[in-house]
Amino acid sequence: QLEAQKKQHDATRVDMNNTLKDLTDAQREIKELEQDKKSSQRLIDTLRSEVSTKDSALVKENYDFRREKAQKELYADEISRLKRSITENEGTIRTHQSEVRR
Question: pTM to 2 decimals?
Answer without folding.
Answer: 0.60
